[in-house]
């Protein structure tokens, strides 16, 4: 539903994007950022068993997300620039430092995002999803792509 | 025709109110992944505020399609039948709550 997405994300049409999956309630943006195989369950640092989270304690802060993804081999990095041999993630947060969204960089340099329980999209820039609901990008993470 | 205060009218009113709140909640939060933002949405909070009368409608909703009603069910009933190994698995969580509801004759 591209028209609906454009209403929710006013900057979405500022650059190319493509819907790449149907709506699916089974997984969310963090699960999708964690990898293509994590599409069976929803990730969030909420009380168990309401959502899955890979580490304890469950902290709904940017540093809590960094700690969780460090267990998956990610470390903080400075830019979203495409680096050969690395996979990057972006963490969005609101003004209170509460994470709102994660996106994963594709080998093309484009980004893939699962929009809550709506569709997956590929988008050219991270800015396309910024706004009142997702806030802004506050942190980049990267890990070496396994050979 | 049901008169004011009859069980039939009360039941219809509860269901209509739930459906209206659920529709508004879905519209406002479907694009959000944040558990906190989803459950703190005013429509979701009003569903919780409806109390035990809303439980059968939450369960029937789960029977139709998996939805994020688990926190509302927990908040209203004080129970949580979902096994730890099923955390975040919305299909397994739905099945656990539907089994719970059937055992109590709610669906």
Query: What global shape of chain A is seen?
Result: globular
- Oligomeric status: heterodimer
What is the C-alpha radius of gyration of chain B, as a whole number of Å?
14 Å
Structural class of chain B: mainly alpha
Straight-line N-to-C gap of chain A: 37 Å
Poorly predicted segments of chain A? none
Strand content range of chain B:
under 5%
Order of helices and strands of chain B: HHHHHH
Blueprint (SSEs and pairs):
The complex is a heterodimer of chains A (147) and B (107).
Chain A: H1 2-8, E1 17-19, H2 29-34, H3 62-70, E2 75-77, E3 86-93, E4 99-105, E5 111-114, E6 120-123, E7 136-144
Antiparallel strand pairs in A: 1-6, 2-7, 3-4, 3-7, 4-5, 5-6
Chain B: H1 7-29, H2 35-39, H3 42-49, H4 55-64, H5 70-77, H6 90-103
Helix pairs in contact in B: 1-3, 3-5, 4-6
Give a quick rundown of the structure:
Chain A is of the alpha+beta class.
């Amino acid at each position: 539903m591209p028209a609906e997405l454009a209403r929710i994300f006013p900057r979405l049409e500022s650059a190319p994007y493509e819907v790449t999956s149907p709506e699916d309630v089974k997984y969310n943006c963090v699960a999708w950022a964690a990898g293509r195989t994590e599409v069976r369950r929803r990730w969030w640092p909420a009380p168990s068993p309401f959502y899955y989270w890979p580490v304890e304690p469950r902290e709904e802060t940017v540093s809590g997300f960094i700690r969780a993804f460090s267990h998956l081999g990610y470390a903080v990095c400075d830019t979203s620039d495409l680096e050969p041999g690395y996979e990057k993630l972006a963490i969005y947060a609101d003004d209170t430092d509460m994470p709102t969204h994660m996106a994963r960089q594709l080998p093309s340099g484009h980004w893939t995002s699962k929009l809550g329980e709506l569709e997956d999209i590929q988008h050219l820039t991270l800015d396309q999803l910024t706004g009142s609901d997702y806030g802004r990008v506050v942190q980049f993470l990267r890990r070496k792509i396994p050979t | 025709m049901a008169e004011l205060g009859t069980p039939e009218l009360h039941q219809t009113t509860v269901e209509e109110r739930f459906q209206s709140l659920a529709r508004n909640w879905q519209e406002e939060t479907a694009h959000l992944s944040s558990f906190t933002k989803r459950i703190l949405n005013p429509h979701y909070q009003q569903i919780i505020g409806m109390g035990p009368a809303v439980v059968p409608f939450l369960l029937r909703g789960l029977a139709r399609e998996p939805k994020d009603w688990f926190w509302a069910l927990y908040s209203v009933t004080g129970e949580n039948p979902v096994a730890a190994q099923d955390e975040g698995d919305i299909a397994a969580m739905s099945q656990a709550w539907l089994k719970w509801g059937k055992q109590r004759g709610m669906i």
